[in-house]
């Protein structure tokens, strides 16, 4: 189990602050986003998932907040990742 500081470091990595990749922390990473999101563009989400997390982006239909707009589909994806 990663420490709190490892998790914070991983979150910063996702934003590019430290120049490290979460994969170097031996923590599995996934990136889930909604295709119709007007805040985070799909092209950026796919690129960030691949380059910053070393993961393929998981796309859901819908807008910015899948826990609100697509709770069932999000739960299915998360259950598949567990």
Tell me what you see in this structure.
- 48% of the residues lie in helices and 10% in strands.
- A two-stranded parallel ribbon has the order 1-2.
- It has helices spanning 4-15, 42-53, 66-69, 71-81; strands spanning 31-34, 57-60.
- The longest helix is centred in the N-terminal third of the chain and has 12 residues, at 4-15.
- It has four helices and two strands.
- It has one domain (4-81).
- The protein is mostly helical and 82 residues long.
- The two termini are 15 Å apart.
Write the layout of secondary structure elements.
Layout: H1 4-15, E1 31-34, H2 42-53, E2 57-60, H3 66-69, H4 71-81
Parallel strand pairs: 1-2
List SSEs in N-to-C order.
Answer: HEHEHH
Oligomer: single chain
Radius of gyration: 13 Å
Our estimate of the beta-strand percent is 5-15%
Query: Can you tell me the overall shape?
Result: globular
Taking pLDDT < 50 over at least 5 consecutive residues as the criterion, the unreliable ranges are none
Strand tally is 2
- Tally the helices: what do you get? 4
Output the strand order for the largest sheet: 1-2
How many strands, which pairing sense, and closed or not: the largest β-sheet? 2 strands, parallel
**Share in helix:** 40-55%
Mean pLDDT: 80
Computed structural class: mainly alpha
Total of domains: 1
Distance between the termini: 15 Å
């Amino acid at each position: 189990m990663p420490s709190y500081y490892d998790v914070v470091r991983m979150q910063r990595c996702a934003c590019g602050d430290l120049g490290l990749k979460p994969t170097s922390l031996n923590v599995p990473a996934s990136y889930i986003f909604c295709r119709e999101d007007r805040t985070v563009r799909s092209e950026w989400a796919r690129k960030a998932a691949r380059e910053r997390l070393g993961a393929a982006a998981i796309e859901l239909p819908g807008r910015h907040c899948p826990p609100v707009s697509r709770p069932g589909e999000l739960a299915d994806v998360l259950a598949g990742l567990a």
